[in-house]
Automatic annotation (TrEMBL):
<keyword id="KW-0408">Iron</keyword>
<dbReference type="GO" id="GO:0016705">
    <property type="term" value="F:oxidoreductase activity, acting on paired donors, with incorporation or reduction of molecular oxygen"/>
</dbReference>
<dbReference type="InterPro" id="IPR036396">
    <property type="entry name" value="Cyt_P450_sf"/>
</dbReference>
<keyword id="KW-0503">Monooxygenase</keyword>
<comment type="similarity">
    <text>Belongs to the cytochrome P450 family.</text>
</comment>
<keyword id="KW-0349">Heme</keyword>
<dbReference type="GO" id="GO:0004497">
    <property type="term" value="F:monooxygenase activity"/>
</dbReference>
<keyword id="KW-0732">Signal</keyword>
<keyword id="KW-0479">Metal-binding</keyword>
<dbReference type="InterPro" id="IPR001128">
    <property type="entry name" value="Cyt_P450"/>
</dbReference>
<keyword id="KW-0560">Oxidoreductase</keyword>
<feature type="signal peptide">
    <location>
        <begin position="1"/>
        <end position="15"/>
    </location>
</feature>
<dbReference type="GO" id="GO:0020037">
    <property type="term" value="F:heme binding"/>
</dbReference>
<protein>
    <recommendedName>
        <fullName>Cytochrome P450</fullName>
    </recommendedName>
</protein>
<dbReference type="Pfam" id="PF00067">
    <property type="entry name" value="p450"/>
</dbReference>
<dbReference type="GO" id="GO:0005506">
    <property type="term" value="F:iron ion binding"/>
</dbReference>
Amino acid sequence: MIVAFLFIFIGCLWSFKRSSRTRMLSTLVLNAHQLHEFATRVLQKSRGTLEFKGPWFAKMDFIITSDPMNVHYISSKNFSNYPKGPDLRMILEPFGDGVFAADGNLWKMQRKMIHSVMKHNKFESALEKTIYQKLENGLIPVLDHASEVGIKVDLQDVFQRFTFDNICMSVLGIDPNYLSFEFPQVAYANAFNATEQAVFIATLCQRV
Ligand SMILES: *[C@@H]1O[C@H](CO)[C@@H](O)[C@H](O)[C@H]1NC(C)=O
Ligand SMILES: *[C@@H]1O[C@H](CO)[C@@H](O)[C@H](O)[C@H]1NC(C)=O
């Protein structure tokens, strides 16, 4: 996969000025290491919705949107018109038949179940309490400690840990204390991180 990726990368550099389609793909590949920042800039420039056209051989045409109205329409109002399809299911395979990868009735059933939990007012107050506690007993003490001792921390890592603890507490009812002074390694947090990276790379390489 990496060889294929490099091949396309070199191919794109070679043909950089040849067509706007190739240029779009090469710009994407060149910015893969800072995709969030890149996507934010590009989406801002195109007022929230962008049509991406890859080179003809890569079959990489897609639309990317951050407009809440579009997201709502696609993911909820007219979902059956936007099936994820077998390609995306293959990429999201590590997530099994969960709501991210499912289509059709399976998706509908899971969405209904999750929705009924989330819209329950007890869920909202429990979530608020969980996040507040983690903020008070985790995030603030860790940042205070780092500032007192004068150590550098990677804020992305800190907030990833903060989010992970909150999700575990809200969904599983346990606190893995991934966010603590020692910045511990937690096997399933690492596994989840590795899965995310793999899905991301698979998304980029899928057509290549
Ligand atoms: C969903 O999309 C289909 C196909 O474009 C369209 O015919 C239908 O009216 C849409 N439904 C809603 C609720 O917008
Ligand atoms: C997740 O993985 C990436 C890439 O391997 C790494 O840079 C990052 O520090 C990891 N994050 C955590 C919280 O382990």
